[in-house]
Amino acid sequence: MPPKNKGGGSRAKPSESTKQEAPKKPQTIRELEWQRYYNTNPHQKAYEELGLNGMTPADRQAYFNQEYLKPGAAKTLSNKAQKELWKQLNEASLPLRSLPRPSDNQWGRDKNGRDLGDYTVEEYRAYDAKKIKLLYLLQESDAFKTKRAKANGENGIPPRGDITLTEEDIETERARRREMAQLQQELYGVRMDPYELDPEWDDVVPIPQIEPEGALAAIAYPEEYAESMSYLRAVMAAKEYSPRCLRLTERIISLNPAHYTVWLYRFSIVEALNISIPDEIEWLNEVALTHIKNYQIWNHRQQLIDHYYPTIVTSPPEVTALATSERGFIEQMLKLDTKNYHVWSYRQYLVRKLGMWGDAERLSVENLIRDDVRNNSAWSHRFFVVFSDPAYSTPDSNATEHDPKIPDDIIDREVEYAEEKILLAPQNQSPWNYLKGVMVKGGRGLNSGKKSPFGTVRQFTEQFVKNLGGGDAEEVTSSHALDLLADIYKEAGEKDKADLVLRRLGEKWDRIRRGYWEYRRKLLDSEQP
Asked: Considering only CA atoms, which of 166, 163, 245, 170 is closest in space to residue 154?
């Protein structure tokens, strides 16, 4: 039983030692919590600072009595003792409820490791408001899922005809999840999976990439890419071909345009959904202009054309329109990189597929050669367009063999064209190679008497070489002319001249390939006269 108060008055008065100055306004939530604790445990401070022996009898009695305010403690006393207790508590004006003593780690830490107890009161209130808001949004999101389950008959719940899920409901949920993601990032530093933000993907269980334990070179995939791929594995495993899967491939391609499997899956979706090929090509154009060196883009484009062509093959205007459109885009791509191998390979495929032979394609390539006479890719494509045209060439004729079906006027035109471009840049190898190829295709010897406006091929070539072997008077404006002259003299049986040309190439005009020219000289010696 608590002892009766035998102090000097009927009400316990605080001693001088327990009198304190007016408390300062707490600056942090920790200080506020300690202030509240001491306010609801008014004699605790004196006990901590003075100990029991230093406290006045009245304070000491009040301190002990307050222990009986703990839940269930007063019931251990008799009825008489309880009456005396409540009398003393009333006289001491003790709070009937006291807060527990704060612990050092009771507030936790924020996403940056900062102790929440060190937050200012205003900061903590704002932090707590965000937590409450997040909890409310989570409850609203759960309500959306329940409504959807009832409307669609999900999770074993029979569908209810009186409940419908509108697009507005779905869009509201998307906005709600975006807000939840922002709050989780701000509060806990947790990043929500982008697909968690879209109710459309709630039914998909992602399949993550599992790296072997202890892998020597585990790939550190970016988080966004890894998440997208985990959803891709799931829908591919389910053999799903849907608009959302098409959008998923678009996102992954934006992250990794070289992912061959994603491109193949995308084409399967295009086929399954019968998506407009012109629309897909229009989307593909933007991707190609962004990733100009990517091969998979052009393989996908070829698959699209193969798929689309049978549907328009009976309509020449549509085929022509497609050819014109594709040529225009190819020209746009080649402005970015005139020697892009993937574009030129696709262009050759397209010429065969759509029958883009003739003057339009040839003149298009001429424009590129005019812009850059050294563009070997453009020269190669011109040769293909001119000498593979099924209208007058032998099918499957090898590029390095004579084709008797090629008309003489075409051979004459191409010889003249090559010679014109050689005059612009004599040291440019491309037109020299083209000229030799044209002569082979036409079955004309290099010593043919056939003349262009520049004379015979021999006369044209010799103008770039003067006084060969004549010491200081020797003048050569094209080492490629020397190379061709070696073949011309060899064909004419002028072995000494051919040997001189090859020797001077190795000695002065093309020293870096001296070993090659010496090899060519040995071939002259080994051949029968």
From this structure: 163
**Tell me, what's the pLDDT at 378?**
96
Measured CA to CA, the distance from residue 340 to residue 338 in angstroms comes to 6
The answer to whether residues 35 and 97 touch, using CB atoms and an 8 Å cutoff, is no
- Residue 331 burial (10 A CB sphere; 0-12, 13-18, 19+): middle
Give CA–CA dist 397/386, Å, rounded. Answer: 12
Could you give the CA distance from residue 481 to residue 275 in angstroms, rounded to a whole number?
Answer: 55
Give the integer Cα–Cα distance in Å for 420 and 418: 5
- What span, in angstroms and rounded, lies between the C-alpha atoms of 271 and 269? 5
pLDDT at 4: 52
**Element containing residue 440 per DSSP (H, E):** helix 429-441
Hey, what are 202's tokens? 């709630």
Gap between the Cα atoms of 269 and 157, Å rounded: 31
Q: What is the 3-state secondary structure (H, E, C) of 189-254?
A: CCCCCHHHHCHHHCCCCCCCCCCCCCCCCCCCCCHHHHHHHHHHHHHHHCCCCCHHHHHHHHHHHH
| CA dist., res. 360 & res. 372, Å (int) | 19
Return the structure tokens found at 469: 């072997």
Which pTM does this prediction carry? 0.75
What's the rounded Cα separation, in Å, for the pair 467 and 510? 17
8 Å CB contact between 350 and 323: yes
Q: Give the pLDDT confidence score for residue 56 in this predicted structure.
A: 86
Take residue 147 and report the two structure tokens written for it.
């409504």
- How far apart are the two ends of the chain, measured CA to CA in Å? 137
What percent of the chain lies above the pLDDT cut of 90? 62
Count of other CB atoms within 10 angstroms of residue 293 = 13
